[in-house]
Amino acid sequence: MLNTFKPILLINDSKYAIVINTKNGVSMGTVTLRIPDSKHERLKQYAKDKGISLNKLFDEFATIALAQFDAKTRFELRASKGNTHEGLKLLDKLVEEL
Fold first, then answer.
1. Cβ-Cβ contacts under 8 Å for 9 (sequence gap 6 or more)
2. 5 close to 22: Cβ distance less than 8 angstroms
3. How confident is the model at residue 2, as a pLDDT?
4. Are 80 and 40 contained in the same domain?
5. Which pLDDT tens digit goes with each residue over 20-76?
6. Same structural domain, 47 and 88
């Protein structure tokens, strides 16, 4: 089966056009990134050295950024429910073991 994109136009007015593509049933958004040409060339070379497309490289970057965001969010949620005194005691115990 070919990996074909099927565009779906969500909004089209005088200022904005939002298009979501689907590939094998998965919604795919399009992002326009404005960066200096020199940086663009370096990123293309980086992707080439890794043996992947520039699109795949940015997909990997997005995955890493989202994993970091999710970890931070989980930490902050757990910290908000935690006990400061007990947390400091655990850190002291860790320092003693090191």
1. 17, 18, 19
2. yes
3. 47
4. yes
5. 566 666 677 778 888 999 999 999 999 999 999 999 999 999 999 999 999 999 989
6. yes
- Which residue in 48, 52, 59 sits closest to 23, CA to CA? 59
Euclidean distance between CA atoms 87 and 6, whole angstroms = 51
Distance CA 90, CA 61 (A): 34
Kindly report the CATH number assigned to the domain that includes residue 92. 1.10.1220
**Within a 10 A sphere around the Cβ of 28, how many other Cβ atoms?**
15
Using alpha carbons, select from 67, 34, 68, 61 the residue that is nearest to residue 46.
Answer: 61
The pair phi, psi for residue 64, each rounded to 5°, is: -65, -45
- CA 66, distance to chain mean position in Å, is 4
The verdict on 64 and 23 lying in the same domain is no
Q: What is the largest CA-CA distance in the chain?
A: 64
Between vectors from CA 10 to CA 4 and to CA 14, what angle results, nearest 5°? Answer: 120
Give 51's DSSP letter: T
